[in-house]
User: Which sequence fits this backbone?
């Protein structure tokens, strides 16, 4: 990839910043931002871009999950149950993605980034923890398995879709309070991202080392910063901030792709 090093640093910095903020504030997969930006600005193969994005997501999600867990905004029990089905179908989705035209993956990533951003602005998630805890443990377990299967396939298929669908399902289908949904989302994404990244690299080969390291570093730093602030912010603030960031990124990426 013959690209000026300064340009690479700038692109990875802003991609990492957007991804880190999205991960720390709203449990987004880093691939929601990184993969379309790399496709648009670095002209990177979409399949490889998703692989780098998912690998960047591992540490970013882990540090975010740790922060949310310390603030008691993490459902580990149901998170683990969901994670099992997610992990299995992440591999299936990753393989399926390798069989499709690259343009399909890039288009879906940009579209979902914009649409979810609009959703958070227009219809913010305002569920309380009290309402969330009214659901029976049996129903929650069944929901976790079924939803985990769908999320896992999407995560492996279009890295960006995994994190987005996870947050949507946790808040709308399973009725999670926003901060707990985010904490649980990043907890699961730590492991699904690792599985997805390994699958992508095994199938598509090893990525550009410079881009890979810079992307992981910038994403990790911004995810930590965002998670610290998010746990002190109001749900309304989280919804609006995340929505605006995703809408702006979706528009910019679409214009330059």
Assistant:
């Amino acid at each position: 990839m013959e690209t000026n090093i300064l340009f690479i640093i700038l692109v990875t910095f802003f991609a990492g910043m957007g991804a880190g903020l999205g991960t720390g504030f709203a449990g987004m997969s880093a691939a929601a931002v990184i993969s379309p930006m790399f496709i648009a600005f670095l002209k990177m193969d979409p399949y490889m871009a998703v692989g780098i994005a998912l690998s960047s997501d591992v540490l970013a999600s882990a540090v975010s999950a740790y922060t949310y867990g310390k603030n008691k905004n993490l459902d580990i029990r149901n998170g683990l149950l969901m994670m099992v089905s997610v992990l299995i179908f992440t591999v299936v989705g990753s393989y399926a993605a390798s069989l499709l035209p690259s343009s399909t993956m890039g288009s879906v990533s940009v579209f979902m980034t914009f649409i979810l951003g609009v959703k958070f602005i227009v219809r913010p998630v305002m569920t309380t923890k009290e309402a969330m805890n009214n659901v029976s443990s049996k129903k929650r377990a069944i929901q976790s398995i079924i939803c985990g299967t769908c999320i896992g396939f999407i995560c492996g298929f279009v890295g960006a879709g995994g994190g987005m669908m996870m947050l949507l399902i946790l808040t709308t289908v399973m009725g999670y309070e926003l901060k707990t949904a985010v904490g649980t989302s990043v907890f699961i994404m730590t492991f699904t991202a690792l599985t997805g990244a390994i699958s992508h690299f095994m199938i598509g080969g090893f990525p550009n080392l410079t881009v890979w390291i810079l992307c992981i570093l910038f994403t990790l730093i911004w995810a930590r910063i965002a998670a610290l602030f998010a746990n002190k912010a109001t749900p309304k603030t989280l919804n609006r901030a995340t929505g605006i960031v995703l809408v702006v990124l979706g528009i910019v990426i679409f214009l330059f792709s």
